[in-house]
Structure formats: structure tokens, C-alpha cells
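Thread: quick sanity check before group meeting

JM: Hey all, I'm pulling together slides for Thursday and realized we never actually wrote out the predicted structure for the chain we discussed last week. Dropping the sequence here so it's in one place. If anyone has concerns about the input, flag it before I start.
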Amino acid sequence: MSIETIIDAGVRAFKEQMAAHLSDSVEGELTPALAHTVTLGVQRAIAAAGAGAFRAFLESKETAADVVFHDGEPYRFKYASDKTFGMLWGQQAVSRRVFQNASDTKTHVPLDAAWGMAGETLALGGNTAR
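JM (edit): ok, ran it. Output follows.
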């Protein structure tokens, strides 16, 4: 993945949120209420841009392999799953691939393991929960 792809994901999310929250709000006379509405809309758009860019980055690091090795044991692709993480920009779902060992007793998620989030539910900011 290139930096341009990450930037594009963030810009797309920013534009979508700005349009959704502010398209009907920016016309008219400047008032404290209008300024507050626009401020909140910009904050939401910035959060959406960060979340979209970071999600694109993480998902670009996903493995395409059907078999991975973890602790010397082969794990085969079982299913794709979204997992919600608490991030700096709020709760975000990240799509990742789940693998299972031959005896169907253990699972492994390479993406979670790669960024230190195996078994975690909070990514950035605050204590982690399991």
C-alpha cells in the first residue's frame, strides 16, 4: 500500500463527514450557534479522516496467505471477521482474517498479533481491556 492510498482513504472520510454534518448548516448569518455547529462538524470530520486512514493502513497489512505458522504450528484460514477497537478517533471496526489450527482448538489472527493487539479491545488512548 502506498501513502497515497492511506491519504485518499482519510480525505474521502473527511469529505463524507463534512458533507453529512455541514452541507445544510454553513449558509446564513454567523452566530455562536452556527460557529458551534461548524466546529463540531469539523471535529467529526477530522476524527473520521484519522479513523479511515488508520483502518486503510491496518487492512493493507493483512496477509493473503491461506496458511500461516504460529509457534511452529500451521494455522489455516477459517473466516474473515471485523473486530472493533477503541482508537484515538473512537470505536472503529477493522476487517481481519482469522486462522485456526488443525485440531480446531486454537485461533490466530496475524493482523492483531502484528500490531500487538491480540486479545485487546482498545488500541490507542487509555487502558487496554481483554
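AS: nice. Residues 32-60 form the longest helix (29 residues). The first strand starts at residue 67 and ends at 70.
JM: adding both to the slides.
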